[in-house]
Amino acid sequence: MRHDVAALREELTAMAVADHRSSVHANSDDPAEQLAWRRLTARHGDRLSEIMDEYGWPTAEVVGEEAARAAWLIAQHADRQLDVQRRALRLMQQAVSAGSAGPRELAFLHDRTLVNEGRKQLYGTQIAGVKDGAPVPWPCEEPERVDELRAEVGIEPFDEYVAKFSTP
Q1: Are 86 and 153 in the same domain?
Q2: Could you read off the pLDDT of 84-119 as tens digits, one per residue?
C-alpha cells in the first residue's frame, strides 16, 4: 500500500504540472489548443474518478499536501464532467467535516460546480470574464453576504480577489 500511495502522490503531482502547463490554452483562440486542454482535463477527470473509487478523496494525510491540492485542481478543472465534479465535491465535503481537507478549496469547488450546473455561486470565486479591464464574476446567490461567507472559509474579501484579475 505504501508503494501505491507514493505512486499515486507522484501521479497526482504530475497531473497538476501538466494542468498548469496546458491551462493557458483553456481560452485560446486556437481551436486545436482548446481541444488539447479539453482532452487533458477529461483524461485527468477520468483518472480522478478511478482514484476516488479506490481511495475516496485523496487527503493530505494519505497523499501529502501537494498531491491533495493537485486532486482538488483536477476536480476544479473537470468542467465537462459534472458527475466527477459533484462526486469530488461530496467526498471533499466529508473530508472537510472530518478535518482532513480545507474549507477554502471546498468553497472554490462548490462555486465551480454550481456555475457548471447553471446556478448562482455562493462565494464569488468564479469569474465569468473581463469587461473594460474589470473582472465580471458569475452571479452570486447572496451578493450582500459574499465577504462574510468568504471570511468563514479563509478567502480574502471579494474586492481584493477580483483585483488580481484586473488589467491596468
Answers
A1: no
A2: 999 999 999 999 999 999 999 999 999 999 999 999
